[in-house]
Design a protein that fits this description.
The protein is α+β, with helices and mostly antiparallel strands and 104 residues long. The chain has one domain: 2-Layer Sandwich (Alpha-Beta Plaits), CATH 3.30.70. The longest helix has 19 residues. The chain binds zinc ion. The site of zinc ion has 8 residues, from loops.
Length: 104
């Protein structure tokens, strides 16, 4: 099992999971039961979307990137991750690539 990204907004994690399941990639969400445990945004407790099979990781990232890029270009600007420089949708608080905070 390999983590793809984590995100405070559970609906977004679920959305990404449905995209990947639609592509035939088995996924699991970790920390699902921890959502709402604390009112403070602690990335360690954010719902994390993971692929069940490690070999699906790269393909899953590519699929999500395509979908999210399409969503983002329709809605918001992309922002560069302050940690790894990867582009993220403008409403992401945590980088999908490295898990670090996205700074604008
Ligand atoms: Zn990053």
């Amino acid at each position: 099992m390999k983590e793809l990204f984590r995100e405070r907004d559970f609906s977004r994690v679920g959305y990404c999971q449905s995209i990947l399941e639609g592509e035939g990639i088995a996924t699991v969400i970790r920390n699902e039961q921890l959502t709402g445990l604390t009112e403070f945004p602690i990335p360690d407790f954010f719902p994390a979307l993971c692929v069940v099979n490690d070999e699906d990781h790269d393909r899953a990232i590519a699929i999500l990137r395509d979908h999210l890029a399409a969503d983002a270009s329709a809605a918001e600007e992309e922002v560069d991750c302050g940690t790894c420089g990867e582009q993220n949708p403008g409403n992401f608080e945590v980088c999908w690539n490295c898990g670090g905070p996205v700074r604008i």
